[in-house]
Amino acid sequence: MARSSETTPVSTFRVVAPLVLAAFAYATAQTTIVPVVPYVQQTTGSSPSQVAWLVTGFFVSSAGLTVLAGRLGDLFGRKRVLCAVLAVFVAGAALAAVGDSLAPIVAGRVVMGAAGGVFPLAYSILGAQLPRGRAALGMGMISAMFGVGGALGLPLGGLLASSFGHRGLFGATAAVALLALLAVACLVPADRGTRGGGVDWLGSILLSVALGGPLVAVSRAEEWGWDGPWTLGLLAGGTVAFALLLVVENRVAQPLVDLAVLRQRDVWAANLVTFLVSAGQGTMFFLIPQAVQLPESSGAGLGVGVDRAGLFLLPTALLSTVAGPVTGRLVARFGTRPPLFFGAAAGGCGLALLAAGGGQPELLVLGGAVVGLSGGVIYTALPALLADAVPLDQLGGANGVNTIVRHVSMATVAQLAAAVLVLGTPRGAPYPQEWAFTLSYTVSAALSVLSLVPIGMLRSRRAAETAPAAEPAAPSTPHIG
């Protein structure tokens, strides 16, 4: 794991607590919007396709700017950039809170998504400020916020929106983010950038198009048609942008994404594990609230309201919260591979329980809890793995890419699961059949088990520790012509 650049001991609480609060603020914002979407549509007189941008816009801006935030932290100081993205997040939430029409509310959500760099910056700060054991513990607590925020966001969003409308929801979000900003500014020690150079703005634009185009296409494909011109055009545009990104990043002296780092075995294996495991996490977070709100007569639902639907994910949040810090201690002692093996296997088992559960609430809760345990373990071990594998001056960018892989996987599988539900709804029937849920859970379980393959390809901790320390890569000579 990257060594601290500080010469004086740093209190673990002083570093970890503000970062956990920042991670919680961002993670809850990903799901608190879900129960608010119908309310905003009704109050603003918007169409379903227009109001969908409350969700889509957030993820698109997050996908495009998360890696950039991590890279800027490497260049100009991680605390400074983290404070900047938190300030952007507060401004976006405030804009959405005061908006009385759809445009400013969507604009506020887009601005909020631009603060997706919270997680990679927090991981990098921990890797730079704290020794291995304490950094791994902190990474566990921050990683747990993914599950906690995702699970608590649904009931919190429903309660706030039902009592105070969208203004109360976004106002509360801005207040929590502002508190996190003040905590980071006052408590987290300052750091300096580890290398000079400029910002690869062309790479940033290409990355935004390469990720944003396909995300928009997948999220709107049910409305436009999977073979519609807009869907195919955005997918094709994203593919072209990705190809150009590879060319540009191989040629510039200071790339946004160092492809040599991404080609390292532990790094690409970590990203592949992230994609496969996150598919199960995204499927669970999307389908459980959908299923429990269906009427019991559908054969797959429990007939609960939106305010109670999120409560079925509370055990998920609790196990994820406990698993993170415990895994951090295990990583510090045994390395990353044993926890990753356990987490992947647990994810497969939890999703298999969900596939077998049907409309049984006990199996839904148990399966979701086991998947939450898996996420808490996996998402704690992966940042520690990257901190072991990547030089300090590349750590923010590497964590940014890994965070984006997670977001893209979860967003994509959620939309694919939605497509399966549509296919599983007979013509003229109001609800999907149970097999549609079972199929999505089964495929996700298989992907989680498949992640055991790249985990087995990771270097052992001993190998990682005895290998020569990686030095910051010297700027490559730009190719000409």
UniProtKB/TrEMBL annotation:
Keywords per UniProt: Membrane, Transmembrane, Transmembrane helix
Gene3D superfamilies registered for this protein in UniProt: MFS general substrate transporter like domains (1.20.1250.20)
Protein name, entry field: MFS transporter
One protein family per Pfam: MFS_1
Localization, UniProt: Cell membrane
SUPFAM superfamilies in UniProt: MFS general substrate transporter
PROSITE patterns cross-referenced by the UniProt entry: MFS
Location of the Major facilitator superfamily (MFS) profile domain: 15-463
Membrane spanning residue stretches: 53-69, 81-99, 105-123, 135-156, 168-189, 201-218, 230-248, 268-289, 309-328, 340-357, 363-387, 408-429, 435-453
Major subcellular location class: membrane
